[in-house]
Automatic annotation (TrEMBL):
It comes from the Bacteria. SMART domains: AAA. InterPro entries: AAA+_ATPase, ABC_transporter-like_ATP-bd, ABC_transpr_FbpC, ABC_transpr_MalK/UgpC-like, Mo/tungstate-bd_C_term_dom, NA-bd_OB-fold, P-loop_NTPase. GO terms for molecular function: ABC-type ferric iron transporter activity; ATP binding; ATP hydrolysis activity. This is Carbohydrate ABC transporter ATP-binding protein (CUT1 family).
Length: 361
């Protein structure tokens, strides 16, 4: 296991990048703590796989350094980094049996046959393939082959890090849940540093101790699932995390009030003068309908999703969502929305602004 440090790291696929827009991965500094489980979350094309491939050694960064426990590994090949990587699509040896595929990383390192047999049996049990150990990989389904890839990545106990690049893409939904649970169990048992790349917020939030959210080649927030939900550091995080995502409304900020089209919205703290485009962000969970106070809204439809209702509405032309409890009646005359002041976030140029020191927020 290792602490992985990224120092002033940036990467461009162009031979002579001139501006930040030329970089697929914009400059970042980041520490991955030894033994922690991370999810690297973002939309397709945001730079997740580029960053993972730099950590694994499949890609050399244009700028900066990567350190394993303080040792510069920027130019070191993958084999020297002692990591295991599982890719989006299965990579298996079709001519080998399931047992031989799982054993390959250990045999390649000259481990004792008894130890290999014990580890292969344990991992096969973990991925639900004990009864298929003698089968050739050729002819197995895509999800079975991906389970072999996952098992081969997990079979070595002594790796510095386990890297997963959207590994459950070809796995059926029920098996996804089981494998995520098993990966968590493996992490708790052996304490490997794990980095799990995904565009699926459910996978990220259920797997990771901390989530690294990327947008447009940049890390916009690193935090626990609770931190990402309660205080998104960037409007993209608010939009991307949560179902539905955060409501965002253009607003003017004056002290402890925001003004949306001239109507005031109480804030949980006081703010100084703000430059740039300012908006307020409120989770649908912290919005409620009212008959006589708040901002005017027009409800377009109500979606009952079992645990609660999602009210789709517009506020001064901006689409917003409001959550109501499953049994809550929706009065026909309710035409306004009120936000919980303690859970109204303020953003300037898409970045979260903290209230003035000593403020109640």
């Amino acid at each position: 296991m290792a602490r992985i440090t990224l120092e002033h790291l940036a990467h461009s696929y162009l031979p002579a990048p001139q501006s930040p827009d030329d970089y697929a991965l914009k400059e970042l500094n980041l520490d991955w703590e030894d033994g922690a489980a991370y999810a690297l979350l973002g939309a397709s094309g945001c730079g997740k796989s580029t960053l993972l491939n730099i950590i694994s050694g499949l890609l050399t960064p244009s700028r900066g350094r990567i350190l394993f426990d303080g040792v510069d590994m920027t130019a070191a090949p993958t084999a020297q980094r002692n990591i295991a990587q599982v890719f989006q699509f299965p990579v298996v040896y079709d001519t080998m049996t399931v047992r031989e595929n799982l054993a390959f990383p250990l045999r390649n390192r000259g481990r004792d046959p008894a130890y290999i047999a014990e580890r292969v049996q344990a991992v096969a049990r973990m991925i639900g393939m004990e009864d298929q150990l003698s089968r050739k990989a050729r002819g197995l389904t895509a999800d079975a082959k991906q389970k072999i890839s996952l098992g081969r990545g997990m079979v070595r106990r002594e790796v510095n890090a386990l890297l997963f690049d959207e590994p459950l893409t070809v796995i059926d939904p029920h098996m996804k849940w089981e494998l995520r649970t098993q990966l968590k169990s493996l992490h708790h048992e052996f304490g490997h540093t794990m980095i799990y790349v995904t565009h699926d917020q459910t996978e990220a939030l259920t797997f990771a101790d901390k989530v690294v959210v990327m947008h447009d080649g940049r890390v916009v927030q690193v935090g626990t699932p609770q931190e990402l939900f309660e205080r998104p550091a960037h409007t993209f995080v608010g939009y991307f995390i949560g179902s539905p995502g955060m409501n965002l409304l253009p607003a003017t900020i004056e002290g402890d009030r925001a003004y949306v089209n001239g109507i005031h919205v109480p804030l949980g703290g006081r703010y100084g003068p703000l430059a740039g485009g300012t908006r307020i962000g409120v989770r649908p969970e912290f919005a409620r309908l009212s008959k006589d106070e708040g901002l005017p809204v027009r409800i377009s439809r109500i979606e009952d999703v079992g645990r609660h209702k999602i009210l789709r509405a517009t506020c001064f032309g901006t689409e917003i969502n409001i959550l109501a409890a499953e049994g809550e009646a929706i009065p026909a005359e309710a035409s306004r929305v009120v936000f919980d002041p303690a859970n109204v976030n303020v953003y300037a140029d898409d970045w979260l602004v903290a209230p003035a020191q000593g403020s109640a927020a």
